[in-house]
Design brief:
Length: 388
Amino acid sequence: MRFLHTSDWHLGRSFHRVGLLDAQAAFIDHLVATAREQRVDAVLVAGDVYDRAVPPLPAVELYDSALHRLAALGVPVVMISGNHDSARRLGVGAGLMEQAGIHLRTDPEGIGTPVVLADAHGEVACYGLPYLEPALVRDLLGAERAGHTEVLAAAMDRVRRDLAARPAGTRSVVLAHAFVSGGAGSDSERDITVGGVAAVPASVFDGVDYAALGHLHGCQAITDRVRYSGSPLAYSFSEADHRKSVWLVDLGPRGEIAAERVDCPVPRPLARITGPLEELLADPALDAAETAWVEATLTDPVRPHEPMARLARRFPHVLALAFEPDRAPGDPSASYARRLGGRTDQQIAEDFVGHVRGGSGPDTPERDLLRQALDTVRVDDTAREVAR
């Protein structure tokens, strides 16, 4: 059986101040064409279909068009909601869409009920695990605690119980939206940390033939059977080196996996350039960046006059500008952003406590209290989106 594994469309998202709807429409054209040309048996969409809970109307229209076109090809679609989606909104009409081969899995109650597909070698059970916010689904799933690993493990227990009751030789696919250990993230994924931990082990998916993952925006294989397709477009400059693609997966008669990447169309390349302004304006090695979307980081010791306007004369698609003056590491005027770079919210909060106490950081109970407060804020934000 042949699948196209994709995720993280983020319909409605912009790249800095540039709208991406045309580029997203070009990706949908590419997806439909690939499904037709490669004669795929199903398309798997592993969450974050939209960029926010209440998407703009043009994004909804593009989503509607994509489903109509895939349904017209007779290609089943299995789709789950991600942490950016409103599961309730995305799941509206799921029962009716099922009749057209569009299988929406947005309700945790349905985790143990697969979409059953079939080929010449027998049945394939496709289980859709929508994004599981631990604090909201712990009781429903009977998880030991409200952590990502625990709720995903409880969900997979339901999958394995159903699979064990099916005929011998039934192959299995799971769609999930999570941060799996060993995956490489980027700046454009929303933080899903709970209790200081975001990642779950790949072993949670043991026992299924293929896990089609969403959430991380870089295409990557955690194991041969556990893969991220990544986002079809770049949504931050941290993805400048990504090769955007979808996975074309062949599932053999005994669960063998063969996967290859199919490149997605690139609306415009990304370039990150760093150095003193005058050098950036004169360096011939940067000629290729003249047609790219550009993030420029200036290292001049003193902020130059009108840097954005001067950069735009050579790099007309410059979108982002940062200043990181070349200074000694101990210089007290070093960039605040640089000092915070790569640090979690928990670490920043703990550093702040140490700063206001004159160097005395939080003790263990205080660290736990900070962690609980940060988790509560994030869970409250998620609950508000779910309720919209």
